């Protein structure tokens, strides 16, 4: 006799109010899978795209609702399926990156089943709320930097630098030996400086012009977390690159290559996930929690995220 669990579901697309608490059978891990008793799930912009239905424009082949949103879970392993390696065992504190579009749905649930390959131990010294903010955003940046293939000493600009993706972009670019130019409002200047940016410029639509004043030849690449798209292209050297986060692929100009990053391509890249965990443990990546809310207040978390200005990630607490 299996038990029941609660989850936050999207049964129809719409505003934050469509997020509903539902009861489901307790999921069971299959071969090569583990089950996690979720303590915390980070709230990401992709969760908002899913809830609103906007995601269907980006991923036309997704299955119809209902969905359980969430891609970032942190908790404790409470069951291990057959054939899982001995890297993970019952009782381990772990973080996982999951997809709402797979058979086991997303992270907004009391329990989630995930491929063992998508699960790593939580960074030592971090609580699970903070740990839940790592994988999806940092992996997005890692995939983007890998696509660009820059060499130490080259220069990259990061837009939206104070946000969660932008913050990891600064820190991962610095660990790769790159010079980082970042944007910030006056209120975020200190934060972006602490994250390690070499040059900080006022954010806004004419950021490209300000970058050229600092780097007349143009930067080698941009990680465009602010989604400036064509407005940031003039900052980039001929033949340079731009990493984009919502599927934008141009048109570009002057031979600039657009690299739209989809985090779903890296969900089972355990080596990348382990490296990100290690970098967080070593303090090279800063885990930033804006606020922790009870899971029952998921709609409020979505409202706060959509209102803008959140620094770090909102996190839902599923322990209650």
UniProtKB/TrEMBL annotation:
<dbReference type="InterPro" id="IPR013154">
    <property type="entry name" value="ADH-like_N"/>
</dbReference>
<dbReference type="GO" id="GO:0016491">
    <property type="term" value="F:oxidoreductase activity"/>
</dbReference>
<dbReference type="InterPro" id="IPR036291">
    <property type="entry name" value="NAD(P)-bd_dom_sf"/>
</dbReference>
<dbReference type="InterPro" id="IPR011032">
    <property type="entry name" value="GroES-like_sf"/>
</dbReference>
<protein>
    <submittedName>
        <fullName>NADPH:quinone reductase</fullName>
    </submittedName>
</protein>
<feature type="domain" description="Enoyl reductase (ER)">
    <location>
        <begin position="14"/>
        <end position="316"/>
    </location>
</feature>
<dbReference type="InterPro" id="IPR020843">
    <property type="entry name" value="ER"/>
</dbReference>
<dbReference type="InterPro" id="IPR051603">
    <property type="entry name" value="Zinc-ADH_QOR/CCCR"/>
</dbReference>
<dbReference type="Pfam" id="PF13602">
    <property type="entry name" value="ADH_zinc_N_2"/>
</dbReference>
<dbReference type="Pfam" id="PF08240">
    <property type="entry name" value="ADH_N"/>
</dbReference>
<keyword id="KW-0521">NADP</keyword>
């Amino acid at each position: 006799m299996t038990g029941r669990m609660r989850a936050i579901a999207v049964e129809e697309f719409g505003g934050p109010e469509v997020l509903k608490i539902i009861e489901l059978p307790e999921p069971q891990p299959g071969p090569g899978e583990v089950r996690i008793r979720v303590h915390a799930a980070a709230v990401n912009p992709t969760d908002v795209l899913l809830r609103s239905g906007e995601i269907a424009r980006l991923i036309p082949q997704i299955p119809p609702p209902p969905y359980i949103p969430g891609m970032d879970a942190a908790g404790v392993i409470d069951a291990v399926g057959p054939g899982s390696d001995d890297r993970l065992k019952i009782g381990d504190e772990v973080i996982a990156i999951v997809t709402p579009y797979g058979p086991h749905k997303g992270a907004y649930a009391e329990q989630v089943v995930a491929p063992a390959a998508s699960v790593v131990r939580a960074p030592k010294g971090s609580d699970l709320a903070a740990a839940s903010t790592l994988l999806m955003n940092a992996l997005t940046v890692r995939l983007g930097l890998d696509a660009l293939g820059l060499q130490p000493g080259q220069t990259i600009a990061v837009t939206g630098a104070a946000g969660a993706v932008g913050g990891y972009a600064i820190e991962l670019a610095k660990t790769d030996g790159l010079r980082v130019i970042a944007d910030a409002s006056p209120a975020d200047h200190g934060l972006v400086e602490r994250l390690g940016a070499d040059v900080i410029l006022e954010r806004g639509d004419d950021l490209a012009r300000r970058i050229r004043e600092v780097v007349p030849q143009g930067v080698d690449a941009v990680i465009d977390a602010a989604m400036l798209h064509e407005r940031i292209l003039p900052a980039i050297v001929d033949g340079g690159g731009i990493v984009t986060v919502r599927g934008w692929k141009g048109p570009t100009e002057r031979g600039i290559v657009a690299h739209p990053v989809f985090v779903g391509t890296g969900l089972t890249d355990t080596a990348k996930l382990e490296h990100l965990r290690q970098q967080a443990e070593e303090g090279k990546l800063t885990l930033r929690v804006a606020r922790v809310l009870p899971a029952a207040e998921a709609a409020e978390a979505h409202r706060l995220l959509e209102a803008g200005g959140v620094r770090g990630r909102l996190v839902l607490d599923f322990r209650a």
